[in-house]
Amino acid sequence: MRRLEVVPSLVHGVSVSPLSDLEVASIRADFPALGEFVNGQPLAYLDSGATAQRPLAVLDAERDFLLHSNAAVHRGAHTLAALATEAYEDARATVADFVGASPAEIVWTSNATDALNLVAYGMANASHGRGGPAARRFALGSGDEIVITEAEHHSNLVPWQELAAVTGASLKYVPVRDDGTWTADDAAAVITERTRLIAFAHVSNVTGYVAPVSDIVALAHAVGALVVLDACQSAPHRRLNLVELDVDFAAFSGHKMGGPNGIGVLYGRADLLDALPPFRTGGSMINTVTMEGSDFLPAPQRFEAGTQPVSQAVALAAAVRYLESVGLDRIDEHENALAQRMLAGLADIPGIQVVGPAAGVTRAGLVSFDVVGVHAHDVGQYLDSRGIAVRVGHHCAQPLHRRLGLTATTRASAYLYTSTDDVDRFLAAVAEVRPYFGVDE
């Protein structure tokens, strides 16, 4: 296979080199799951785009909290409740700092899908008169437009379809090009004076394309539209300052960044969160309740009804500290180098159609591809027989696959613990797929 010479690149104006093989080996030792064998083969885990493995530091942090500090937060006057509340809010501050925000701008959700739905349902409630005068900025009606892209994950598509349906607004989309990417010029052709919201992924979970966030924010704000950023594939992998990006809302999940399941994050500008009506109501988010009505706490508590994900928040903060100890810029560069290695290797294998940016163009550390003549599910099963875990299917992006003329693709996604050996084993196995299934070259 062709080898790419990896040289230090500039990230944020600073020379950054990828993680060395020795450093990656040291990191891998922190992730117990990576020592497992699958079908008699050492596990090569290339499905971090779906769910990342968790380091011992995260597992230990959650276990330590549950062993010594577990209690209901923001309730009770006893010492354990105070310790739990302190840990819970310290975790919020850690995650806020991770994305350049203030703690009041971080809402705990159950996952990123929940976070995006929180915004959509809040806007729907505002459109039906809830939230008072401050919420009118979120109200939509006939003639208003919501803009997304054709490349979106269903979690950043279906909520906006529903919002359009219940408010009478129109849902428009930025079409992708033949490789699955799109540009700011493509978006500019769709955004109009009637656009009230534009939602898009920072990084595509299918193509690895990195969106021109600043350009889209400028276009949106020029017409008074809100910007919702799906940061699920960017927050775990690259340095992210949501305030500097000037987005209005953003969502990401814990399980994709070495944290636990059951917790996600909604970032929102403080003034917007305080004005957005809640859509999930009950205990923990109220100020005063009478038999005639209720009023709600300020953000972020107004959006955290019910029993909070306390141990999960503590574990997510531990995941953030772990990533920061390695360095997000170095993780980003490491993954980009691995993606280029995958692209170069796949280019040498007959019958492989890669989607997304071409080789040599910066992308996230994931590559989706079609093996001509072999269904993606068969590809995935063959790779699994070799101990290689990848994702197969439409990756919750049916419209994008339909546009590309594909029913499914195989996706290999890297993370900070992915080694060059993982990638080389993957490439060797992909080269065996078509001969194994008897497909002519």
Automatic annotation (TrEMBL):
For the keyword Transferase, the answer is: yes
Q: For this protein, what reaction is catalysed?
A: (sulfur carrier)-H + L-cysteine = (sulfur carrier)-SH + L-alanine
**Reported cofactor(s):** pyridoxal 5'-phosphate
Set out the biological process GO terms recorded for this chain's protein: cysteine metabolic process
Every Aminotransferase class V domain range: 45-426
The answer, when asked if Transferase is one of the entry's keywords, is yes
What EC number is given for this enzyme? 2.8.1.7
Query: Which keywords does UniProt give here?
Result: Pyridoxal phosphate, Transferase
Matching Pfam families: Aminotran_5
Alphabetically, the GO molecular function entries are: cysteine desulfurase activity; pyridoxal phosphate binding
For this protein, the record's InterPro entries field holds:
Aminotrans_V_dom, Aminotrans_V_PyrdxlP_BS, Cys_dSase_SufS, PyrdxlP-dep_Trfase, PyrdxlP-dep_Trfase_major, PyrdxlP-dep_Trfase_small
Q: Which family does it belong to?
A: Belongs to the class-V pyridoxal-phosphate-dependent aminotransferase family. Csd subfamily.
Reported function: Catalyzes the removal of elemental sulfur and selenium atoms from L-cysteine, L-cystine, L-selenocysteine, and L-selenocystine to produce L-alanine.
| NCBIfam families the UniProt entry points to | sufS
Would you tell me the protein name for this molecule?
Cysteine desulfurase
Q: Which organism is it from?
A: Glaciihabitans tibetensis
Lineage, uppermost ranks: Bacteria, Bacillati, Actinomycetota, Actinomycetes, Micrococcales
